[in-house]
Specification:
The protein has twelve helices and 14 strands. It is of the alpha/beta class. The protein folds into two domains: about 5-60, DNA polymerase, domain 1; about 65-340, TIM Barrel, CATH 3.20.20.70. Helix 1 (about 10-20) packs across helix 2 and helix 5 packs across helix 6. The two termini are about 35 Å apart.
Length: about 350
């Protein structure tokens, strides 16, 4: 009989487990604290549990841990990309971006991706499977352990479409923000979606406090469909309507991510159309110079980036250029996984 992996179980699920083992309810809080707070990976370290209970746990349960398969650190900005091997032999990536005394971590939610964005290396892999809640959150725990740096900001912008793994994603977020565990601020978690409209509406109705970002990347349907085929199903006008619904329902602003691709979506006219699209919305805009990955796409020259940015001057929403990090270590989503698979 296969053992139950405790990493990824919520407080309620741990309560069910200890109840089935005829242990008092408070044992679940102790186990939760050991795994997510103190970060232990063996039952022997859970010293406030009886030896007999620890032995029973070891027979029926395990504490999963992602295995480090490869890592690369940028010589430019100290960003580190980790490739983690999963129990079934597949692999996922996380990227750690150091800041002053802490770090931001870009987290994956799936092995591969079904969205097939034409400029993304992960899209070349296709979708292989969803990650479990434990595999999602363990990227954070392992990155902190390996780097020695506390992670304060999480961005679910790694491999996969987060809203295609909705339940496991939100379960991982719940554990990561639990005060008895990692205790991250919910406002420091950003979930990025390519625009899965039914899930955006569900997310708004459920009242989650994690921040929402949407990959826009184009200002016309023809342009966006060529880059992101899901636009055929949910075109830009519907995305904007969903954003309005979300911002009104949640009283939170949304972040539009716009990857700048040289001579594809980075013209002055593109910038002017983007300006019209977001006027009146409660939002912010992140302009992201492309980190070259696949296909015929290249990074916009700095002068085109600056010209695009200047066309957005005067908007009543924040506009920032988010310069890509780790371009010397293949830090774009899926690049290291594809390279390792090739080897």
């Amino acid at each position: 009989m296969s053992k139950t992996d405790l990493k990824g179980l919520s407080q309620n699920e741990l309560e069910d487990l200890v109840r089935r083992m005829d242990e008092p309810r408070f044992r679940s809080a102790q186990i939760f604290s050991w795994i997510y707070g103190k970060r232990v990976d063996s039952f022997d370290e859970m010293t406030n549990l009886s030896k007999e209970f620890r032995e029973r746990l070891a027979k029926s349960a395990t504490i999963g841990q992602l295995a480090l398969q490869a890592s690369e650190t940028s010589g430019k900005d100290s960003s580190t990309k980790y490739l983690f091997k999963l129990q079934d032999g597949l692999a996922v990536e996380s990227v750690l971006m150091p800041e002053d005394g802490h770090a931001t971590l870009c987290v994956s939610t799936q092995v591969g991706c079904a969205i097939d964005c034409k400029f993304c290396a992960t899209g070349k892999m296709g979708l292989q499977r969803n990650l479990s809640a434990g595999e999602i959150l363990d990227q954070v725990l392992r990155a902190e352990e390996l780097s020695g740096q506390p992670v304060r900001n999480l961005v679910f912008m790694g491999m996969g479409e987060p809203f295609h793994n909705y339940d496991n994603l939100l379960k991982a977020c719940e554990i990561l923000t639990d005060e008895s565990g990692p205790n991250l601020s919910s406002r420091k978690l950003v979930i990025s979606t390519s625009g899965i409209l039914p899930k955006i509406l569900q997310y708004a109705d459920e009242g989650h406090k994690y921040r929402l970002a949407i990959s826009l990347n184009a200002t016309t349907d023809e342009q966006r469909t060529a880059l992101m085929p899901l636009n055929k199903k949910w075109p830009i006008a519907e995305v904007i309507r969903a954003v309005k619904y979300y911002t009104e329902k949640s009283n939170q602003r949304v972040t539009f991510e716009y990857v700048l691709l040289n001579s594809v979506n980075d013209s002055v006219d593109d910038a002017r159309r983007l300006r019209k699209l977001v006027e009146g919305l409660r939002c912010k805009i992140n302009l992201i110079p492309y980190n070259p990955a696949v296909g015929p796409y290249s990074r916009s020259p700095n002068e085109r980036i600056q010209a695009f940015y200047e066309q957005l001057a005067g908007l009543k929403v924040p506009v920032m250029i988010r310069w890509s990090k780790g371009d010397d270590i293949a830090a774009g989503c899926g690049q290291l996984a594809v390279a390792e698979k090739g080897r």
